[in-house]
Amino acid sequence: MAGENLPWNIERVGYGDGTGKTVWVIDSGIDTDHPDLNVDLTRSLSLIYGNPSFEDGYGHGTSVAGIIAAKNNGSGMIGVAANATIIALRVFDDAGAGTLSRAINAVLHVGNNAKAGDVVNMSLGSGMSTTLDNAVRTAAEKGILFAIAAGNSSVDCYQSSPARVDAPGVYTISASDVYNRLWDRSNFGASVDFAAPGVNVTVTTKGGSIGGGAYGTSMAAPHVAGILALRGTVYSQGTITGDKDTTPDPIASVK
């Protein structure tokens, strides 16, 4: 722990040793040279037709990965499931643009290749897609665990896939701030299972560094991915204030 940055967001949910755990990150790729990340170069791949690189040109996936699994190695930051193995499934290009078909293909790939107890982080969303929803459900039925961003449009996520999926092993996550309040742009609704930090959080950044000031349910979901990697389930410490539906979201925790 000496020399490590312990951001408020990691401290809030807790952390542990994720060595030997595997988390699949469906996102913009990963900075494979980042000294704080343990990336599986053999199993990582790009779902972008004509572009086989899973290097992160956009930065989003690298930030997500650090929250999940930044190493406890005496420098940088510490992740929730420190030292866990990250597998990058790249669906966003260097501008952060993606397609529904890439997301579906990535989930199908996970369903065919991940093992029970593996975790998938999906900090992405689309309009309603029964195909995407069903792919997530089918993979979850195999014991693969999903952490999914609720979305950042300040609306009920019942019209958003895969955030609207309400099934065992699938966790939809809203974003909260340092005061345990719902972030004003976070989506909400019956399918949301937990809240996690998503306001001014510290993350790993492409280019090998760390940085603060990251926002969104995209950053909340990976906290829960880390908890799932460590525990196989999610615990809670209290509930958020300011929820926009009738049930305040429990605050995700490793214990």
Automatic annotation (TrEMBL):
<protein>
    <recommendedName>
        <fullName>Peptidase S8/S53 domain-containing protein</fullName>
    </recommendedName>
</protein>
<dbReference type="InterPro" id="IPR023827">
    <property type="entry name" value="Peptidase_S8_Asp-AS"/>
</dbReference>
<comment type="similarity">
    <text>Belongs to the peptidase S8 family.</text>
</comment>
<keyword id="KW-0378">Hydrolase</keyword>
<feature type="active site" description="Charge relay system">
    <location>
        <position position="27"/>
    </location>
</feature>
<keyword id="KW-0720">Serine protease</keyword>
<feature type="active site" description="Charge relay system">
    <location>
        <position position="60"/>
    </location>
</feature>
<keyword id="KW-0645">Protease</keyword>
<feature type="domain" description="Peptidase S8/S53">
    <location>
        <begin position="18"/>
        <end position="230"/>
    </location>
</feature>
<feature type="active site" description="Charge relay system">
    <location>
        <position position="218"/>
    </location>
</feature>
<dbReference type="Pfam" id="PF00082">
    <property type="entry name" value="Peptidase_S8"/>
</dbReference>
<dbReference type="InterPro" id="IPR000209">
    <property type="entry name" value="Peptidase_S8/S53_dom"/>
</dbReference>
<dbReference type="InterPro" id="IPR023828">
    <property type="entry name" value="Peptidase_S8_Ser-AS"/>
</dbReference>
<dbReference type="InterPro" id="IPR050131">
    <property type="entry name" value="Peptidase_S8_subtilisin-like"/>
</dbReference>
<dbReference type="InterPro" id="IPR022398">
    <property type="entry name" value="Peptidase_S8_His-AS"/>
</dbReference>
<dbReference type="InterPro" id="IPR036852">
    <property type="entry name" value="Peptidase_S8/S53_dom_sf"/>
</dbReference>
<dbReference type="InterPro" id="IPR015500">
    <property type="entry name" value="Peptidase_S8_subtilisin-rel"/>
</dbReference>
